[in-house]
Every structure is written in structure tokens, then in C-alpha cells.
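Lab notebook, bench 4. Continuing the backlog of folding jobs that were queued last week. Each job is logged with the same field layout so the records can be merged later without manual cleanup. Today's entry covers GNAT family N-acetyltransferase, a 293-residue chain. Filled in by technician R.K.

JOB TYPE: sequence-to-structure
TARGET: GNAT family N-acetyltransferase
LENGTH: 293
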Amino acid sequence: MAITFRNYKLLCDFEPVSEFLRHNFVKYQQNGNIQQPYFEYAHTHPYFDHKMTHRFGIWEEKGEIVAVAAYEMRLGETFMMTKLGYEYMKPMMLEYSERELSKVVDGKKSLDVWLFDYETELREHLAERGYKKEYTGNITVFKYEKGFKECKLPEGFSVISLEDENDFKKINDVLWKGFDHGDEPDDDLDCRRLMQSGPHFRKDLTTIIKAPNGEYACFAGMWMDGVNDYAYLEPLATDPKYRRMGLATIALTEAMKKTQKYGATYCFGGNREFYQCIGFEVVCHREKWNKVW
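JOB STATUS: finished
OUTPUT FIELD FOLLOWS
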């Protein structure tokens, strides 16, 4: 039966695409697809452009999704994801992405293509079409079989979850400052409420280090996809005045322990040196290739 094409419908296709990602995942991300929590977290991020998601492409065979082309946050980038065995579709998906997911800057089109270093044929195809690699970042995981590092919580600090307390103002403060946006957080608390609106967001897995004065010193969001045996960290931030106290390590470790109880055997971390220092391993690399035309 022929493969058919249609566009993404935000209100009804989020969960089918999520299922597609869950069931076409290979351990340690050796599959060319993004993790389902990555897709969901983006949909609840205040920077996500909901108005242009109708440009996402979906290809189906016998009613089953076999490929998806989508951006993470906004036009100008593409992730090309396929069912296992359908990777041959990516050159065609690239042409679609160039038409529908590119952005226009100073009268010229621009597209960032995200892929993994092991996708040799796709990398060669991008080079042939005039793309140039602009960025390489580590994909890191912490394997639970290694055991968790135990750190002592500083006196007066406590570990809580969002089930214990869910203060949007304090969350906004620690994420604003923790991501180095400045000392004066804005008052957009609705964006923090939005980020808890995902259908698979877990308050119990989100871990906070609370300071003696009641401030949230460190925030660690944690996700599971419900099918595969991994946890996914997003976001992790520490207020600058509470850094170098081991709080991020403690929050992340406590969050990973929670997911282990639900069947996770490893956790995806970030690209910064911090992760490798506490035992995360590099399993592959994500690359960004760009073309302007």
C-alpha cells in the first residue's frame, strides 16, 4: 500500500506522534529519533510556536505513522523522524522541510537540520545539497547500574517534590535566575503553569531543593515516556547564589532514584561538563547542519 502524506493537527495528532516516538525508540537513542518527552516538553514551552505546527509533515502507511518532520520550537529547523526501516525517506523529508519548515531571513531561506553523528548517509546527502555542519553536542546518559552518588544535603536545605509544594512564583524565580536571565525575574507565571500542562508531566518526579529561607534553590524536572526504560531530565537549574553546593547533583540523583522505581534503567542528561563529572557517559552526538539559499 502506498505511503500517504498529511499535515499535523495539533489538537488530535500530539498523542499519535508521541506513540510513534515511543514505539520507534532504540536504547541510548541509536535510532535517529528524538525522545517523546523532548517532543512534549517543547509543546509546553513558552517559546514554542503553536501557530505554525500545521506545517509539520506526517507520512502514513495503512493508517500507521511511519515518518514525521517537525521543528522543536519554531520555523527554521527540522527533526526528521522515521519508523525503523524507513530511514530511506529522509531525503524526501528534507525536501519537504526546505519548503515548509525553513524560515526567511533578509530575503533568504534558512534551515537547520538536526541529526545524529551515526547517520552517515544523511550527513553525506546534506553535504551534497550544500549544508554545512555548525554544531556538535554530546548525548549523555547515566546508567543506573553504576549506582548513585550520595551527597550530603547542606544544613537547613530540604528535598521536596511539586506534590509537596507547587509555588509558581518560586519556580519562576529559580528558573529565571538559574538560566542566567538576570537578577530580576519577570512576572509571567502563566508560562510556568503552561510548562506543567503536558499530559505526561509528573509532579511527583519533579524534584526541588528548598533553601532555609523558603526559596527554591534548585529545580530538576524529570520525565518518563511510559514505554521505554529511560528517564529524561528537563529542565535542571540552580539559582546562582546557591551554586557550588552540590544541590544540582542531589536534586538530579533524587529524581533519578524516583524513576528507577518505575522501571527506568538510565537517564538522559545534558551537554555541559557537569554531567560527565557526575558519571554521565557520552553515547552519541547530535549535530546541526545549516543551509542558506
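OBSERVATION: Residues 247-261 form the longest helix (15 residues).
SIGNED: R.K.
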